[in-house]
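sry for the spam today, last one i promise. struct tokens for design, 52 residues
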């Protein structure tokens, strides 16, 4: 019983992950991270990426 509950929770986590990733990808496309990387130093993009 306990094992099934854990597996179910894991499945929900996996389903939730793709959603978050999709949102991130959409955001990245809108912000054009490549342009930011070229105009700003590597430190700036890294810091921005750390904060969601």
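last one done:
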């Amino acid at each position: 019983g306990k094992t099934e509950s854990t597996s179910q929770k894991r499945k929900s986590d996996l389903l939730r992950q793709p959603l978050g990733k999709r949102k991130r990808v959409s955001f990245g496309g809108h912000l054009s991270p490549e342009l930011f990387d070229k105009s700003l130093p590597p430190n700036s993009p890294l810091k921005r990426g750390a904060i969601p």
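Helices lie at 2-31, 33-39, 43-50. ok im logging off now
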